[in-house]
Amino acid sequence: MLLFAVALPAWLGATDQPWRVFHEDGEWAAEASGWVGAGTHSERTDAGLLVRDPSTEKGSGRMYLLNWGAVPERGAAIEARVRVIACSEAWGVCLLVADGVHEECLTIYPDRLQLVNAKVVVPFKAANGFHTYRLAIKNEDVMLLVDGKLLYDGSGKFLRRAVSDPPRNQCGFGSGASAATGEAVWEWVKYQSDQHVVESESATAIEGLTVAFGETVEIIPGATYKSLFRFRDGRLAVGGQRSNDGGATWVPGPDLGTHFYQFEDGELIGLSFRTTRVSNGVFEAPLIRSTDGGKTVSSLTARLNIPEGTGGTGDDGKRYGGPLVDHAVVRCRDGSLLAAMYGYFKTDTVLCPTFPPEWRVYKYRTFVVRSTDRGRTWDYLATVAYDPEIGLESFCEADLLTLPDGDILCFMRTGGSGGKRTPLYLSVSRDDGKSWEPPRPIADRGVWPSACRMANGVLVVTYGRPDNWVAFSLDNGATWGGHTRFARGESSNYNSIAEVAPGTLLVVYDLRSLRADGSMARATVGRFVTVTRD
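^ thats the sequence. predicted structure below, dont judge the formating
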């Protein structure tokens, strides 16, 4: 039933939640993110943020989103002052509300309003100027107000299940569908929710440890994730940038990363990610070598003997020739090198459920290869973990960490594709990688883990998706605590970490943030973390 200028439901005025700014005068909420697709445009004007999406190509759209921590029983609302110019179909100019259980989209046309999921259309002359639209939700009720008047009482109509896994808990505005076109000027957008219930940045307590998060420094403007390499003398390298002062300042330098290893005599080697098949069970990969600290490099060819290894399909649907070398090379007690790899053996044919079946992406196996000739030749040594019943992807993206007694820890991803997360796992070898203990979960998520051991004996691991996290161990990896989210929002959620001074860590990751004109800025950044063992 459509209602015009009737009394508001009691719960709309009973909340103690403050209104917060999503966007106003070029400023964005700290956690705002965006889907900024090709063929779209935004700019800051005197009247507000102009958002234009004239494209119907796949992937086009310009939608701004905010994780708002809405609680269904408490209710939430988004309110915007906007002038619509054009809208072709649902989601072309829209407001989104989703509380982790249900979701609704208000589409604003020049001559009508549409609650997409409730299948309700309200006649309204929206094109005649700016109007203030509010979409309020609580439990299974949704209310539409315009200029302070209730235009639709949707009691019992907030029923459409929220998408994604886990179900999204967001508000948003803009143009949110590739097939739709739209143009509007947004003077301001505000929201009201229980956002304070979302985990804070303060570290979860871990007895015997004090953790403090410090400043963030920009390392590479415009870059997606680049990993961190620490030289033996303490210098740092990230994606063609170098720091001689522990990460405080950066200048051009060698392009190194976590897949490099430096010998005591200073020689650097880096084993490339992709391999190519030479013959049955034999693969090759580029081996980067430098004897002058990365100033000059030469490229050799490394041989990898993996009798059961085979090629496969990556998470981009593209074929690759052989197993993949991931981001870890470490030294064993006998001086040999150990590298982590993942991919398929000939018998690994269980499909990953998060990819289209026709891609034939199978669940991964994590294993290690060993070299005794400084990386020129690598031989399969042992499987760390493979179990198609665990996680969405089985085991991949491993990082290795050696302890002073020679034990080797292997941290592994088991999910993170398709918007789905599964635990981060850890396995331990006590015999230089020849055998591995059964893997066990240590965090509730974890793509591309990166670990280090601090001089004070504290072990640290970073992991992500969603968001970026860090955790600590005071007992050589037996138990983990202090799980803390140190960065939110849009990024790859890949991280790498190193101790850059006694008690000080630098964690490197990529960050996407919104500019005043609604475009997206990217950067690889570093954040300092101080860890004191009591």
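The chain is about 0% helix and 50% strand.
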